Amino acid sequence: MTTVENPTTAPAADPTDSPISNQMWDVMIIGGGAAGLSAALILTRARRRVLVLDAQEQRNRFAAHMNGVLGRDGYSPRDLVADGYREVRSFGGVIETGRVVTAQTSAEGFEVVTDSGVRASGRRLIVATGGRDELPDIPGLAEQWGRGVVTCPYCDGYEASGRAIGVLLRSVAGAHVAHMLRPYSDNVTVFTDLAGPFPETERRVLEERGMRVETRKVAHVVTREDQVSGLALEDGTVAPIDVVFVEPRLATRDEPLQQLGAEVTETPFGPWPTVDATGRTSVAGVWAVGNASNPAALVPVAMGSGATAALAVNSEFVAAEVAAASAGVGVHHRVPPPRPHRCAG
């Protein structure tokens, strides 16, 4: 199994003399992708003290373009993050490069420690660490990841229109990806070796829809001028393919949540953090957003989850502030439970 990584080394820091360690943040956000930055933007605009700790390991960082994002269709994921950095910082948010290696509760909320030894403390914590794709161990797949080898029909199906599409299954259930891709091309080949025994009924349905089913083992990816041109099979033949849709295993980067004891729920993708509709986990004061809470979240969904969590967090702050003011003047003011603000945009 090939884990798709692109290690980022955090800059050296003196853990005893870091400006981020010298204050109590209202909210600490672990992860600076679409979800984390969306949460940070809402909260900084609400005049909260926000710290984003970003290991720069966004799941889509290998792709040149992201699609299906309103107003940003075809935009670079890296440019989206750069835009988010600028916007969050323009409202006073602080973003630091670093991978959080330890997260724990404290008397006032939470404390985290980065890989460079820097400590930071905050009243609330949003985990936006995303996920990591684990590809099959087929030579050439990882080298083409995000270009000629992709995974999401909604993100990359349209760009494959009329091309020779290969669908590399790792499970029988993954055949639904082939069915999703069929409208884009009359030339779709489904490779089933990695899926194990493949039901005859599934094969017949795929073929009825005009797709070829290939049971031979894929040996390696064939390229021409650094672009996918085929998949070489175990017997030496080459299936002409222009783009490969693969079924990676998605693993959540939930180490901070594990350390805090957050509950998980079994999903078709494996165990995933348990959250409510706002992203709130089983640990009081901790939210999970983006792929850290929803393995199926596309970029727009991840952004929305970050904003939703931010609204919930800020609502808690406002409720606490109203309660404190009421107590200060001796008023027994009933504070309604936090709820999202109704906004027309």
UniProtKB/TrEMBL annotation:
All residue ranges annotated as the FAD/NAD(P)-binding domain in the record: 26-306
Reaction(s) catalysed (UniProt annotation): [thioredoxin]-dithiol + NADP(+) = [thioredoxin]-disulfide + NADPH + H(+)
Keywords assigned by UniProt, alphabetized: Flavoprotein, Membrane, Oxidoreductase, Transmembrane, Transmembrane helix
GO molecular function terms attached to this record: thioredoxin-disulfide reductase (NADPH) activity
Parts of the chain that traverse the membrane: 24-43
Domain of life, per lineage: Bacteria
Alphabetized PANTHER family for the sequence: THIOREDOXIN REDUCTASE 1-RELATED-RELATED
Protein name per UniProt: Thioredoxin reductase
Organism name: Naumannella halotolerans
